[in-house]
Structures are given as structure tokens and as C-alpha cells.
Amino acid sequence: MPISILLYFIQGEFSTEWSDGYLWDIGYVIYLTVLPVLWKGYVIGKRLMGIKIKRTDGGDVTFANMILREVIGNGLLVFVTLGISLLISAVMVLVMEDRRGLHDLIGGTYVVYSR
User: Fold this and answer.
1) Pfam families given for it (predicted)?
2) How would you classify the pairing of strands 109-113 and 51-55?
3) Which of 20, 24, 36, 9 is nearest to 112 (CA)?
4) What are phi and psi of 14, to 5 degrees?
5) Has this prediction a pTM greater than 0.85?
């Protein structure tokens, strides 16, 4: 949404066509994989909400954790299962005591309040 608003002021029209296609998807996965490693578990939205990603041993996430979490757990697995794993993961987050989804189990991560 912020990018669409910025483009509105630059182009004079509101459009979300910039997010169509694989280039946006690849960039977004890179953002979700690299930024938490550089920013100690945060992406912009998580920082605003006061939550962050941690390893199950309590340490900061690594590239390996984030590749497993985002590329394999949130990308490949969802694609291969035609979205069913995403629904299972959502149910897991809602009902399991540790609130970890499939992507967290695969990546060896969990989300914690940082405030």
C-alpha cells in the first residue's frame, strides 16, 4: 500500500500493477529472507507491531533459518501443496500452545514480542 501511494504522487494515478509478476515475488522473498538477518529478526511490519523472529535456541536468526522459513516453508511448501499447508499453518498458529506454524517448524524459528 505505501508503494502504491508513493507511485500515485509520482504518476498521478493509483495502480497496483507494479506488484504483478514474478519479479515482485522474488524481491519480496529476498526482503523477507535478508532483512530479518540484517535487522536482528525484524522486518518493517514486525518492528511496527513490536514482534520479531527468533531462533528456537533464543539466538538471532541466520540466513539458513530464514531460507528454510521463507523459501521452503512459506514458498515451496505452499506451492507444492496448492496452499493447503498455508491453511494447516494458520490452524497451528491458532491452536498450538507455542503458536508456531509449519514455516516456523521448518525454519527452527518462533515469533516473540520484543517490547
Assistant:
1) RDD
2) antiparallel
3) 36
4) -95, 125
5) no
Q: How confident is the model at residue 24 (pLDDT cuts 50, 70, 90)?
A: confident
> Phi-psi region for residue 105, left (φ > 0), alpha (ψ -120 to 50) or beta?
alpha
Any residues with CB less than 8 A from the CB of 103 and at least 6 apart, and which? Answer: 69, 70, 73, 74, 77, 89, 109
Q: Look up cell 515475488; give the residue.
A: 25
Is-contact 55 107, C-beta < 8 A?
no
Helices (H), the chain: 2-11, 22-38, 44-49, 63-66, 77-80, 84-95, 102-107
Q: In which residue are the cell numbers 509478476 written?
A: 21
* 107 alpha carbon, distance to own chain's centre: 12
- Nearest of 36, 85, 42 to residue 93 by alpha carbon: 85
53: left (phi over 0), alpha (psi -120 to 50) or beta: beta
